Amino acid sequence: MRRYLLLLSQRHSLWLYFNMAYGNSWRKRLFDIVIATLLLFILTPLLLTVVVLIYLDSPGSIFFTQTRIGKGGKPFTMWKFRSMVMGAEKQKLELHNEMSCGVLFKVKQDPRITRMGRFIRKFSIDELP
Prior knowledge:
InterPro entries: Bact_transf. Pfam families: Bac_transf. This is Exopolysaccharide biosynthesis polyprenyl glycosylphosphotransferase. Keywords: Membrane, Transferase, Transmembrane, Transmembrane helix. The structure is a single chain. The protein is mostly helical. It has helices at 2-22, 26-57, 88-98, 115-122, and strands at 63-69, 75-81. It has 2 domains: 1-57; 60-129, no CATH class. It starts with a helix and ends in a 7-residue tail after the last helix. The model is unreliable at 1-8 (pLDDT under 50).
Protein backbone atom coordinates (compact mmCIF):
# COMPACT_ATOMS: atom_id res chain seq x y z
CA MET A 1 0.00 0.00 0.00
CA ARG A 2 2.82 2.36 0.87
CA ARG A 3 4.48 1.72 -2.49
CA TYR A 4 1.20 2.48 -4.29
CA LEU A 5 0.85 5.77 -2.42
CA LEU A 6 4.44 6.64 -3.30
CA LEU A 7 3.79 5.93 -7.00
CA LEU A 8 0.56 7.92 -6.85
CA SER A 9 2.42 10.75 -5.14
CA GLN A 10 5.14 10.71 -7.81
CA ARG A 11 2.56 10.84 -10.64
CA HIS A 12 0.71 13.67 -8.94
CA SER A 13 4.00 15.47 -8.41
CA LEU A 14 4.84 15.24 -12.12
CA TRP A 15 1.49 16.76 -13.10
CA LEU A 16 1.81 19.39 -10.36
CA TYR A 17 5.34 20.20 -11.50
CA PHE A 18 4.21 20.80 -15.08
CA ASN A 19 1.19 22.77 -13.94
CA MET A 20 3.10 25.07 -11.59
CA ALA A 21 6.32 25.39 -13.58
CA TYR A 22 4.85 25.96 -17.02
CA GLY A 23 1.29 27.21 -16.37
CA ASN A 24 -0.28 27.98 -19.74
CA SER A 25 2.86 27.49 -21.80
CA TRP A 26 3.30 25.31 -24.87
CA ARG A 27 5.17 22.71 -22.75
CA LYS A 28 2.15 22.20 -20.52
CA ARG A 29 -0.05 21.92 -23.61
CA LEU A 30 2.33 19.35 -25.13
CA PHE A 31 2.35 17.38 -21.87
CA ASP A 32 -1.48 17.37 -21.80
CA ILE A 33 -1.70 16.20 -25.43
CA VAL A 34 0.84 13.39 -24.93
CA ILE A 35 -0.92 12.09 -21.79
CA ALA A 36 -4.36 12.33 -23.44
CA THR A 37 -3.09 10.44 -26.50
CA LEU A 38 -1.58 7.69 -24.36
CA LEU A 39 -4.81 7.33 -22.37
CA LEU A 40 -6.82 7.20 -25.58
CA PHE A 41 -4.71 4.31 -26.88
CA ILE A 42 -4.96 2.50 -23.54
CA LEU A 43 -8.74 2.96 -23.24
CA THR A 44 -9.66 2.24 -26.89
CA PRO A 45 -10.34 -1.51 -26.35
CA LEU A 46 -12.62 -0.71 -23.41
CA LEU A 47 -14.46 1.98 -25.35
CA LEU A 48 -14.99 -0.29 -28.37
CA THR A 49 -16.28 -3.08 -26.13
CA VAL A 50 -18.76 -0.71 -24.50
CA VAL A 51 -19.94 0.49 -27.93
CA VAL A 52 -20.65 -3.07 -29.08
CA LEU A 53 -22.39 -4.02 -25.82
CA ILE A 54 -24.65 -0.95 -25.89
CA TYR A 55 -25.52 -1.70 -29.51
CA LEU A 56 -26.43 -5.29 -28.65
CA ASP A 57 -28.30 -4.38 -25.45
CA SER A 58 -30.87 -1.96 -26.83
CA PRO A 59 -31.77 -0.41 -30.18
CA GLY A 60 -30.92 3.20 -30.92
CA SER A 61 -27.96 5.52 -30.81
CA ILE A 62 -24.79 4.56 -28.96
CA PHE A 63 -24.25 8.07 -27.64
CA PHE A 64 -26.41 10.50 -25.68
CA THR A 65 -25.84 14.16 -26.46
CA GLN A 66 -27.00 17.14 -24.49
CA THR A 67 -26.33 20.85 -24.73
CA ARG A 68 -24.91 22.33 -21.55
CA ILE A 69 -23.67 25.74 -20.56
CA GLY A 70 -19.91 26.01 -20.11
CA LYS A 71 -17.35 28.59 -19.15
CA GLY A 72 -18.46 32.13 -19.80
CA GLY A 73 -22.03 31.01 -20.53
CA LYS A 74 -20.99 29.43 -23.83
CA PRO A 75 -23.11 26.38 -24.77
CA PHE A 76 -21.35 23.15 -25.70
CA THR A 77 -22.47 19.65 -26.66
CA MET A 78 -21.73 16.95 -24.09
CA TRP A 79 -21.35 13.35 -25.29
CA LYS A 80 -21.90 10.29 -23.09
CA PHE A 81 -22.52 6.62 -23.70
CA ARG A 82 -26.27 6.04 -23.68
CA SER A 83 -27.32 4.25 -20.49
CA MET A 84 -31.09 4.64 -20.85
CA VAL A 85 -33.66 3.53 -23.40
CA MET A 86 -34.34 5.78 -26.37
CA GLY A 87 -36.89 8.46 -25.49
CA ALA A 88 -36.01 8.45 -21.79
CA GLU A 89 -36.35 12.23 -21.60
CA LYS A 90 -40.00 11.97 -22.67
CA GLN A 91 -40.64 9.11 -20.23
CA LYS A 92 -39.26 11.23 -17.38
CA LEU A 93 -42.49 13.25 -17.16
CA GLU A 94 -44.59 10.08 -17.05
CA LEU A 95 -42.36 8.63 -14.35
CA HIS A 96 -42.54 11.89 -12.39
CA ASN A 97 -46.36 11.77 -12.48
CA GLU A 98 -46.30 8.23 -11.02
CA MET A 99 -44.05 9.28 -8.15
CA SER A 100 -45.80 10.85 -5.18
CA CYS A 101 -42.76 12.80 -3.95
CA GLY A 102 -42.28 16.32 -5.25
CA VAL A 103 -38.90 16.70 -6.95
CA LEU A 104 -37.45 13.93 -9.12
CA PHE A 105 -33.65 13.74 -9.19
CA LYS A 106 -32.86 10.02 -9.25
CA VAL A 107 -35.13 7.03 -9.02
CA LYS A 108 -33.67 4.05 -7.15
CA GLN A 109 -34.87 1.41 -9.64
CA ASP A 110 -35.33 3.58 -12.74
CA PRO A 111 -37.03 1.43 -15.41
CA ARG A 112 -35.50 3.53 -18.18
CA ILE A 113 -31.95 2.32 -17.46
CA THR A 114 -30.78 -0.56 -19.66
CA ARG A 115 -28.86 -3.60 -18.36
CA MET A 116 -25.63 -2.33 -19.88
CA GLY A 117 -26.51 1.15 -18.59
CA ARG A 118 -26.50 -0.08 -14.99
CA PHE A 119 -23.02 -1.48 -15.46
CA ILE A 120 -21.48 1.56 -17.17
CA ARG A 121 -23.07 3.92 -14.62
CA LYS A 122 -21.80 1.86 -11.69
CA PHE A 123 -18.21 2.29 -12.88
CA SER A 124 -18.75 5.77 -14.46
CA ILE A 125 -17.76 4.44 -17.89
CA ASP A 126 -20.66 6.37 -19.44
CA GLU A 127 -18.75 9.59 -18.76
CA LEU A 128 -15.62 8.63 -20.76
CA PRO A 129 -16.49 10.03 -24.20
